[in-house]
Design brief:
disordered C terminus, 17% strand, eight-stranded parallel sheet, globular, alpha/beta, TIM Barrel
Length: 267
């Protein structure tokens, strides 16, 4: 856990919202007291980017869930980074595990998307994933490092990139990754950056965890040394996202205990 890296939480709505549901989410997020030390973002379907941006508080950023690798052309159904920026949004998620596994996007295609997105100046949440098969066959490091190598070859400005690691075997499966398993994966990714990019990039790049993050486990995970935030799925549609954004904010009970200890020392 590093104080130089601002905590970052993105709640990805995926294909689960319409205007009415966005209005409900906006209502409870706008009314909440959000930790100012956390950078909060929502991942929105492309057809609602402008709608969400116009309704959410300014301090909550909006990300597109995908984009293509060129600025314009005959690519029906795709959107470009310039279109996202023109919608008033500043982030894009690339290489999400669902894009890799369901839509079979290759490391090469994802890298090409990242390269073009970097040229436009949009900020990127670049995703890595580990499947059940990867874990069962002890290929976790091989797969993650291969994904990192492909991404790193295209990134010229690491200050505008956040890395998100998802343990797919712990996403909506009933199996939760332990804090030790999460820390090991994130530490390996950071060490890869240290060895293959630079010490500066390794120390400054934010690395997120995804995989059934909830209001009940976020506080414990938020204390991990190499964790800088979360990429959140289903919990992003509920008020639970507030607890996750505030995962590093001291809760009331800890503040009371701190006050009591201070008072006892002064007595």
């Amino acid at each position: 856990m590093s104080s130089q890296r601002k905590f970052f939480v993105i709640g990805n709505w995926k294909m689960n919202v319409d205007k009415a549901r966005i209005n409900d989410i906006v209502k409870f997020m706008s009314a909440a007291s959000l930790d100012p030390n956390t950078e909060a973002v929502v991942g929105c379907p492309s057809c609602y980017l402008t709608y969400a941006r116009q309704r959410l508080p300014e301090q909550i950023a909006v990300a597109a869930q995908n984009c293509y690798k060129v600025a314009r052309g005959n690519f029906s159904g795709e959107i470009s980074p310039d279109m996202i920026l023109d919608s008033g949004c500043e982030w894009v998620i690339l290489g999400h595990p669902e894009r890799r596994t369901i839509f079979k996007e290759s490391d090469q295609l994802i890298a090409e998307k990242v390269a073009h997105a970097q040229q436009t100046g949009i900020k990127i949440i670049a995703c890595l994933c580990e499947t059940s098969e990867d874990r069962d066959t002890n290929r976790t490091e091989e797969v993650l490092f291969g994904q990192m190598k492909s991404l790193a070859a295209t990134i010229t400005d690491w200050s505008r990139v956040v890395i998100a690691f998802e343990a797919l075997w712990a996403s909506n499966t009933g199996v939760l990754a332990t804090p030790a398993q999460v820390q090991e994966a994130l530490a390996n990714i950071r060490e890869w950056l240290r060895v293959n990019v630079s010490e500066k990039v390794a120390n400054s790049t934010r690395i997120l965890y995804a995989g059934s993050v909830s209001s009940s486990n976020c506080r414990e995970l938020a204390q991990l040394e190499d964790l800088d935030g979360f990429l959140v799925g289903s919990a992003a549609l509920k008020p639970d996202i507030i607890d996750i954004i505030n995962a590093r904010r001291p809760d009331v009970s800890s503040l009371i205990k701190h006050f009591q200890r201070s008072t006892a020392r002064q007595a």
